[in-house]
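Quick log. Single chain, no ligands specified.
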Amino acid sequence: MASAALPAGPATGGLRFKLSVMMFLQFYIWGAWFELGFDYIPKLGFENTWQLPLIFGAFNIGALVALFFSTQFADRHFAAEKFLAFSHLVGGAAILGLFFIRPDPSDPQQVAFWFWPFFLLMLLHSIFYVPTISITNSIAFANLRDPQREFGPVRVWGTIGWIAASWPFIFLLVDWKQVPPLAQVGFVQWLGVALGSSLVGEPAMAMKRSIFLVAALASFILAGFSLFLPHTPPKPAATAADALAWLKAMRYLKKPFIAVLFLVTFIDAAVHQSFFYWTFTFLGPKVDGGWVDIPANWVGPVMKIGQIAEILTMFVLGYVLKSLGWRLTMILGVLGHAARFAVFAYYPAPWAAISVNVLHGICYAFFFATVYIFVDEYFPKDVRASAQGLFNVLILGLGPFAANLVCGRLRDIYVLDNPANPGKTMVDYPVVFQYSMTAALIAAAILAVLFHPPKSSGEVHSPGERPEEVAPPTA
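-> predicted structure:
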């Protein structure tokens, strides 16, 4: 995206506020349904082998669409703020439709009938939502006067929005029948009982579908708010080659260290997705198939500990990269996943299962954020955006899609009777978490043995091009 030349100096407070609200709502939409959706949707009775992977894979398909549609078409033909408004209007309507589809899991015919409408609405939402992740970045970069310095403080509000999305469910999932009237007890006792009780079983399922309602409301709010964002006109491709820059970026996969990083990114993205696939139910009440027995209304905030840690870890990422270098930093990020799944598998005590979520900061910042920085440092300027898009396809698309398929199969294989709810089953979490842990260890080993980028952080060059020396890696 491009806009008229902007004067030097920091952006105005009003502009930064608008962009920060945009980022907050953008990731609030995603955070409202994503984590809890992996607990709610499988309990609707859809088949594990292909139906659930398709439903969850709709978001990954959206990532593939985003690579081509948002960068090769949308942002070259439409004003960004108008495209954002239209996308969230359509995407919000689609995810609102999911609120009204709730088949009876005990009726196979009803489940089969509602699968395709459910999947197609999720796909429609994802196709319109995922491209807006890059569109909001484009709006921010085009309108901030000093993006290198100002983008971080604006983008952090996206992470805050993801964190905030879980808080309504602390109250929506309270079992209010257990809470005494405020007039009969003091406020402190009333609040303690309210926050310490949680819906389970059918009442919980009826309320959990509100994840789609909350996400839809946020989508509609952002659709309207987008019309007040600064005008960001389209930027046509300068040349025919520029329009196909992603093909040029793919040629750099011939370089061994780039190919290794591409493979490890795929593995780590799958491992990362498996965390979301399993963890909400794993941490939740035993009667609902959980293992740790945290009240359902608190599972979301517990998982958001990871995003709080992510914000803090990002502050030290530059120092860590400078001190440890690319390879060791990335290895630590991947091993963070292995450590978290090891705790889940071998020591799922509540205090350990809760506190180990702080490792999410290391998992995300030390690997995924580092990959983005690495691509920006090592790829030529004319293909950097497309190279970032290719890695995004792994991180948001292919890796998670593979994880959905594997996890769906594991859900069928590793089944136990639920002692807390006779007649119901649960997943054998200590076993399935060992798969994720092992995959992370393999990815770390591949990095340690095969990932050897040039010592200089100059750009990657095609054969015959002269390497350009640049500064050492920094964040």
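The domain at 1-236 is CATH 1.20.1250.20 (Growth Hormone; Chain: A;).
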